[in-house]
């Protein structure tokens, strides 16, 4: 698909929409999978719900569909080591060597996170794109420590 100048300008504008950085996990301690996620947003007040976009080829997407369960670790500002570790995906146990906590639903989250959220999948939205949109109800969560969340801005919406 050829990118017009108008679409390039729109992609730059969309890249200015801020997002947080999160580790999205599923599979519990038996089959843990985790990726870096940035397209996360609160989606409802009652029930508390959020949306997250996941690339279609990510293994964690299949685990979430199967278990109907996911967790988010809100990355703390100033800790780039966690970004590097989870950005490209991890072939083996992504939490090896890291302190973790277990959510009420059995998912692993990072003990070093600014906060965590434990969620149940409500809806999967496929719309012919390279990502799938998940809507999940927040069942539990906790703020950890005093660090604020990491905020992410992209130069263009054409890449992460």
Descriptive report:
This protein has helices at residues 5-14, 59-67, 80-87; strands at 19-20, 22-26, 33-37, 40-44, 49-55, 69-74, 100-102, 108-110, 115-125, 131-143, 151-152. With 160 residues, the chain is an alpha+beta fold. The chain has a single domain (20-150), classed as Electron Transport, Fmn-binding Protein, Chain A (Pnp Oxidase, Chain A, Roll), CATH 2.30.110. The strands form three sheets. It has a seven-stranded antiparallel beta sheet with strand order 3-2-6-9-10-5-4. It has a two-stranded antiparallel ribbon with strand order 1-11. Strand 9 (115-125) and strand 10 form a beta hairpin. The two termini are 19 Å apart.
Can you give keywords for this protein?
160 residues; Pnp Oxidase, Chain A; seven-stranded antiparallel beta sheet; 17% helix
Q: What's the short story on this structure?
A:
The protein is α+β, with helices and mostly antiparallel strands and 160 residues long.
